[in-house]
Amino acid sequence: MQSSTRTPKPSEPTALEKERDWFRSSSLLENRDARPGSVLARKEQQKGGFRLLKQRFLDSEAKRQFLFAITGESPSLAPGENERLERENKEKKAVLKEKKAEVERLRVEIGEMAKDNEQKHAELSEKVAQVSKLQKEIDSMELELARLNAAHPPDSRMTMAEASETLDKQTERLEELTSALGTADGRIAELSEALIARRARVAQLSKDRQREEARAAEVTKLRSMGDNHALQLADWFGRMNTQYRALLGIRDMSVENGRTTVEYEEGVTLTMDFAPKLVAADVTGTNADMTEAINAAISANDPAGLVADVLVRIRPL
């Protein structure tokens, strides 16, 4: 239901304006009486008029807003309200401009701070990585120190004087070993020369043995023909063979199925396999390393040289 109340035109005075005009006119009439006794009465009268004016203004404004709410019309501006709103808009625009400038300044400052923070974050991350690495190294060193402390208790540690004394003793021992090594090198050189001479002697005896074996074969042939000279040669060959074995320190020798076994007086046994050349050899009863001599003899197919080499290695000169 729509109300029939109409909005007063600007040319028609409102009730509030009528009351204002009445108050002004009555005040002017009363102010003509300048007696001091009437001042208090006029003051109370004006205060009452102000209260009445205020109450009527509030009632009028409330009725006006109520009518606008019922009819759905937009409220019209009261006299002077447009100027007030314009002043407020100017003030708010000025404040808004200041706020925008402040926001722009903060945005620029935040951008600079973001770049600075990014750089500081990268530096801090690098420092954190370095600290983590150093912490791991420190932990590893602490573990190693704990292990050393456990392995070397304080009671078993050397003092500087004891360490110096031990170092001096070890230095002297090293000098002695160096001197002994030089002596051993000289002895090895002598043994090498003696070994060469023994090999030459063994080679010569091998040739003599072959020659004597040929003679023994001839003696056997002549013996079968009844020649006493052959018997004498056989006896001579037997003696030479015995001397050869004694020279090489051979206690016994046997041949069976392509394997020759030589037993030395020192308790060492040399076993040689032939097919028909020397293909393998083994030495038992000694801790001496015979690998080099065995390989050399197999390569050269020199069993006699191997017999002599074994003797040289097991018998001191």
Automatic annotation (TrEMBL):
Residues 1-46 are annotated as: Disordered. Residues 50-121 form the Kinetochore protein Sos7 coiled-coil domain. Residues 30-46 have a biased composition (Basic and acidic residues). GO terms for biological process: attachment of mitotic spindle microtubules to kinetochore; protein localization to kinetochore. This is Kinetochore protein Sos7 coiled-coil domain-containing protein. Residues 82-222 form a coiled coil. It comes from the Eukaryota. Gene3D superfamilies: 1.10.287.1490. Keywords: Coiled coil. It comes from Trichosporon asahii var. asahii (strain ATCC 90039 / CBS 2479 / JCM 2466 / KCTC 7840 / NBRC 103889/ NCYC 2677 / UAMH 7654). The keyword Ion transport does not apply. GO terms for cellular component: kinetochore. InterPro entries: Sos7, Sos7_CC.
